[in-house]
Structure formats: C-alpha cells, structure tokens
Write a structure and sequence with these properties.
With 516 residues, this protein is α/β, with parallel strands linked by helices. 27% of the residues lie in helices and 24% in strands. The strands form two sheets. Strands 8, 9, 10, 11, 12, 13, 14, 15, 16, 17, 18, 19, 20 and 21 form a 14-stranded mixed beta sheet that branches. A seven-stranded mixed beta sheet has the order 1-2-3-4-5-7-6. It is elongated.
Length: 516
C-alpha cells in the first residue's frame, strides 16, 4: 500500500507584502542583478521610503527570498512639469516630496529577479499598487517607464515611432509591452528621464492607469494656502507667591492665544523657575529638586488649558526628576488632550555647574493637527545636525523655547534659528523670558526678543521674519506661517537646499537615539 503523500513537501509560499527594513539588503543585491549597468539604490534612500510612505513599498517573497519589489509615492501630478525627470519626481530618490493629500500614485521602480521571471511577479506588484490606489481613493497611477529595447532600433525609429510600433505589437519591449498589457495608457515621452539608462537612451514613456473606482471628494482640492497661526509668549519673570498665581498668568496668555484664533501657543524655556521665587530653598541644586515636585501640577495645568482653549501648547520647558536625575524637558500639550515630551539634548556648562542637569539622547518629531513639528530647547538649535534630522523626518516647524541672560546668548539662539530656517527650508519659532527674579540664584536677569522666522525667498516675509517682539518687554507676537507655501518652495523655490544637497559628496550619520 502506498503511503499518503505529505503535501507540505511540495508547498511553496509566495507572498506580496509591504517592504520592511529587514528586506533592504536583499533588495540592494537583487537590483545589482536586475539593472547591472544602472546606479543602484542607496540604503538611506530605501530607508527614507519606509519612513515617509511605508504602505507604498511592496515586495514579493518566495520561500523566504525576495524576488521582486516596487517603490512609489503620492503626488499632485498637475504640479509637475510635463518634462520632469526621475530625480524631479522622487526628490533625488528620497521621496521627501511625498504628498499624502495628493491625487496620484507615482511608481518609481519595479524590479523582478531574472531567475524568477515568467511567474507573473511584475503583474502581482502592479496589482498591489492598483489595490492601494483603490484603498486610498487615488485618481490614477502614473509611471515613468523605461523602453530598454529602444537602443536596438534607434537607427530605424524615433522614440515616438518606436513606442507606436510597440503599441501596435510589431515590436516587443519587456517594459512598455508589459505596461500596456496591464492597462496603462501612454501620456507622453520624456527625454532625459533617467540619465544612466543607456538602453532607453534616457527616454521614458509616461504612462497612466485610471482608477475607475475613484470618487471625487469635495474636501480634496488644490490648496492655495495652509495657514498655521502661532502666538509666541515673551514671558515676564517676576516674583510670585504661589502656584495658583503662576497658573493665573499662564492661563491669561493661553486665553490671549485663543482670542487670536491660534493653533499654537509657545512658552519659553524653564519659565517654571518662576516658582522658585516663593520656595524657601536657596541652594540652586536643591531648589531645582524642590521645583521638580511641581511637575504633576504643571502637566495637569497645561493639559487642562490646551483642551479648554482648543490650542496646542508648547509648554516651554520644566526641570523634571527621573531616576534621581534632573532633566530639562519641553512638553507638547495637544488640544485633544494628548501629551508628548522632548528632552534637552545639549546641556550648557551653566546648567551642569549650577543644577547638575543631565542630557537627553533622543530627537523627536511630533504629529499635530497642523502637520509635523519638532522642539529644540535653546542650546540645541545651535547644533545644525538636530534640525536636519527633524526636517528629514518631516518637521515643518521647529519650536525653540529659550532662556538667556544677556544679549550675546540671545543672539546665538536667534542667529542659529534663522540659519536653520534657511538651510532646512523650515519655519522656526523662538520664545524667551524677560524680567528678573531677584531672589533666585542663577535666574536673576533675562534677555529676549522672541520671534517667528521663515526661509529666505520671494514667497516668504521680506526679511525672513514673520513677526518679533520688542526686546525685554512682556508681550506676545502673533503670526501666520503657510505650510503650503513651504511645501511648494521646497520643490521649486529660487534655491532648494533640501533637494540640492550633494549627497554624493557628504552625508550625516546618526547613531541610534535612545528611548526618551
């Protein structure tokens, strides 16, 4: 009697799924085989894809081996020039121009291991893209396709004539024929699309697949503006008698921000040291620990105010004791009641000497209902690597609570904040303390001129300054920053610092940030 067959011995597992970081090494090796004469992906480009739009990156895994992959992003295609290149549409391969509010899924790469062709791997990847377009209710999928057999016919046909011959099925092209068979229609031919694509003589066919399930939504439209209103509080440090008195002052300014219809209210660095004016402890290191005992009351106060006044609050910063160490922590109190925190990374010599402050080791970028933001406390804005990292993670606004006791210190913060705005095409906001605390050691004088800064280009404020407070006066400055203008200028401004970085010559390597 013959034995019953064990079907598991014959089974093969093929899966189409989203790419993960663990797949990157295999994809890089596969690309060398698929496109041996073209410049391959860089690891940091694929990592950027996964950070920015992970759901748009697919691979095919066959018995544990990656045998196909594809990459894509979302754009408003009407915003791009008809003769755009691959670099234009992908921001140099990093897809930092991905627009979640766009209408079109743009495919930037498909590859299939030559050893596994004939298994409909490319078709499976295209179907995954189509399903994603349906799920996200996108209008169409657009691809810039290679025509790799054109070099064989360059003496017989112009690019247009070659494409017509392939479309008429008189000539077979492995890419164009495949795209036509998968429901893509020719839009036009772009010269110079991929400079290293010698087989296609740098030409590409721009193809489109229309999503017949697309449902236009009235809320989706081409944005002419995306204003975000910010109220910056230049806070007066003066002696008070209780936490309740502090709370009344804080609520007054949050109310002011609310009256102006602000999206953010921004307080200065360590302005809670005002509480030390009524604490009996005079030794700075001990006074700081007594101040940290008010952490829960501080958090409860600002959480309540953010919700009550419907405004996101950058709660300055506060000294917090954790595991017997003191940290300088800035909190984001969202108007939906949720809370985030950013530790000060670079501690000044003064903070170490007087208070024994310990540094944090993590740079965070926070989601808000007005886009992604970052917080860099005072000294941190003077280290350009942190702002670069934040912007690479999607930050559009960097808030800088600061506390300086003289004009030189203030100018270091201001000049660096303006430099970060220019070099990273980002908005920066600085909020400082003024006045004095005559009874508090090491907090006796303050100097500030708070402000809101922009990149330097025609569509922004003339001097790169949305608004600024008079120096050393208790007041606020209110201004609007436009995230849509920022997005457009990053792509097509007079200069494009984010796009034009010479990544072939230099790069910044970040070590793993800690958990805080």
């Amino acid at each position: 009697m013959s034995k019953k067959l064990d079907l598991s011995n014959f089974e093969k597992k093929l899966e189409v799924r989203n790419i993960t970081k663990h797949d990157i090494d295999q994809i890089l090796e596969m690309q060398k085989v698929c496109f041996p004469n073209m410049v391959p992906w860089k690891r940091e480009q694929l990592e950027s894809h996964l950070k920015i739009f992970p759901e748009g990156q697919f691979c095919v895994e066959y018995d544990g081996e990656i045998i196909g992959s594809c990459s894509s992003l979302i754009v408003n295609f009407d915003e791009y020039d008809d003769k755009h290149t691959w670099d234009d549409i992908t921001d140099g391969g990093y897809i930092t121009n991905h627009n979640p509010e766009g209408f079109n899924l743009y495919g930037i790469e498909v590859m299939v291991d030559p050893n596994f062709r004939g298994m409909k791997i490319g078709k499976r990847l295209y179907e995954a893209r189509k399903e994603l377009a349906r799920e996200l209710n996108l209008k169409s999928i657009i691809i810039g396709g290679r025509i790799p057999n054109y070099h064989k016919y360059k003496d017989q046909y112009s690019p247009r004539e070659y494409v017509e011959e392939v479309s008429s099925q008189n000539i077979y092209d492995p890419v164009l024929t495949f795209q036509i068979m998968n429901g893509f229609n020719l839009m036009r031919i772009n010269p110079g699309y991929l400079p290293d694509d010698r087989q296609s003589l740098k030409y590409a066919t721009l193809m489109e697949w229309n999503n017949i399930d697309y449902h236009p939504k009235t809320k989706r439209h081409f944005k002419t503006a995306y204003p975000v209103r910010i109220t910056v509080i230049q806070y007066m440090m003066k002696n008070i008698e209780s936490f309740e008195e502090f709370a009344k002052q804080v609520e007054y300014y949050v109310d002011v921000a609310y009256d102006f219809g602000s999206d953010f209210a921004v307080f200065p660095e360590i302005f809670t040291t005002q509480l030390m004016s009524f604490l009996e402890e005079k030794v700075p290191a001990k006074a700081i620990r007594k101040l940290s005992e008010y952490t829960e009351e501080y958090i409860e106060l600002f959480t309540k105010l953010a919700v009550r006044y419907n405004v996101n609050i950058i709660g300055g910063s506060h000294f917090v004791e954790e595991d017997d160490h003191i940290y300088n922590i800035a909190y984001l109190f969202r108007r939906d009641g949720t809370i985030e925190k950013q530790y000060k990374i670079h501690v000044t010599p003064n903070e170490k000497r007087w208070w024994g402050i310990q540094p944090g080791d993590s740079v965070k970028v926070f989601d808000t209902d007005c886009g992604k933001i970052a917080i860099q406390i005072c000294y941190d804005i003077q280290f350009p690597e942190l702002s670069r990292y934040a912007v690479d993670q999607g930050a559009n606004i960097i808030f800088v609570p600061f506390c300086t006791d003289d004009r030189q210190g203030y100018l270091r913060v201001r000049y660096c904040a303006q430099a970060r705005a220019v070099e990273n095409q980002v908005y920066t906001v600085i909020a400082g303390t003024v006045g004095n605390l005559t009874q508090v050691e090491n907090m006796d004088i303050q100097y500030a001129q708070s402000g809101i800064f922009t990149p330097s280009d025609f569509e922004f404020a003339r001097d790169g300054i949305v608004g600024e407070c008079p120096p050393n006066i208790e007041t606020v400055v209110v201004g609007d920053v436009d995230l849509e203008i920022l997005r457009r200028q990053r792509r097509s401004g007079t200069v494009r610092q984010l796009y034009d970085r010479r990544r072939d010559l230099f790069e910044v390597k970040y070590k793993n940030f800690g958990p805080n």
